[in-house]
Amino acid sequence: MRKNTKDEIIRTTAKLIQEKGYVGTGLKEIIEQSGAPRGSIYYHFPDGKEQIALEAVKWTREAVRSFIQEELSKHEDALIAIQSFILDSADRFEKNRYFVGVPIAALILETSSTNDNLRKSCEGAFETWSLEFMKKLQENGYKESIAKKLGTIINTMIQGALVAALASKHAESLRTTAGILPLIFSQQSLQK
Amino acid sequence: MRKNTKDEIIRTTAKLIQEKGYVGTGLKEIIEQSGAPRGSIYYHFPDGKEQIALEAVKWTREAVRSFIQEELSKHEDALIAIQSFILDSADRFEKNRYFVGVPIAALILETSSTNDNLRKSCEGAFETWSLEFMKKLQENGYKESIAKKLGTIINTMIQGALVAALASKHAESLRTTAGILPLIFSQQSLQK
DNA sequence: GTCTATATTCGGATAGAC
DNA sequence: GTCTATCCGAATATAGAC
């Protein structure tokens, strides 16, 4: 029935970190919401809370990566593909508040100056996602250096838009971000 | 005697929230680092931690607002003024890690789904800062609706760049953001 | 693999003296 | 305005039975 207790703990932790942050998420709550056996936490994660968070980051990184990949494959054109990825994300944000990818930003702001392990793993997630945008751009003929820069910018803009969306409780900032992408592409594309 | 005991608590809290987040910041640490008398916390802030955080947000909002205003007044041209504001911020980020304005994003991600008072005050801070950019743009002849939209976008991009900067521990994302502003302005300005 | 019980530390908050 | 003492709950983590 349950695929795996361990996976369920990881997934629940990713969700809870998004809602309440890293410090604000208690092991007690992880156990309750995941339905995991109370005594199994330190069996699966001997290093405790940090280890769970690191695996939650890894899980989030891959979940978002494959989601980006899937969405981008729906359109040939990189600009249109990335735009519709962002617009889809906006819809998701409004439907249920759970949006994978946010917990990474939360972790960074909480731990960037106190826990270098977590900070580095979050940095890696950002790089992974930027790379997906970059690959799509290269498929469209952008040369490597431009594609890399644009990929990073896009990821950064999305993160900012997500923070703004959480602050205002609506996804307009994401839609606006999608809307200004053509302006950035139009000039950069001259350097293809 | 020290009229600034209260102010010192507020300022210290703003700094600590940036470093460790809202939940991660303890009253004990606030007292220690601010040098405030131990027994004075609940005298000055009868509503406890949340009240201190709310005042820290207000303080940060105004500190950043006047900093933006001051920086933008150094150049006539809105694009150049905003660009140099962002570049100055990048320098500050690298010199000492303390950068006012970040604690707001930290608070949003931690409390957006658990504490509506704090969320709203953070939203207000974003609006205040966006308004400063908007005013500068209007002085440059942008019509209100365009200026407002651009002001919001700029604030959003800066927030995203800050998250990326904290993740990577360098300010390149801020400089890149300054670099792509002309692309956004160049087209939007047609609608002056 | 899972459970219970517990150790230990720490959080925010209150009461009352001065 | 400030201090000390203290409460209460919650946090992470460990030990050892089953």
UniProtKB/TrEMBL annotation, chains A, B:
Domain HTH tetR-type: 3-63
SUPFAM superfamilies on file: Homeodomain-like, Tetracyclin repressor-like, C-terminal domain
GO molecular function per UniProt: DNA binding
PROSITE patterns per UniProt: HTH_TETR_2
Pfam families on file: TetR_C_13_2, TetR_N
DNA-binding region, residue range(s): 26-45
Taxonomy, superkingdom: Bacteria
Alphabetical UniProt keywords: DNA-binding, Transcription, Transcription regulation
Name listed for the protein in its UniProt record: Putative HTH-type transcriptional regulator YxaF
Name of the gene this protein is made from: yxaF
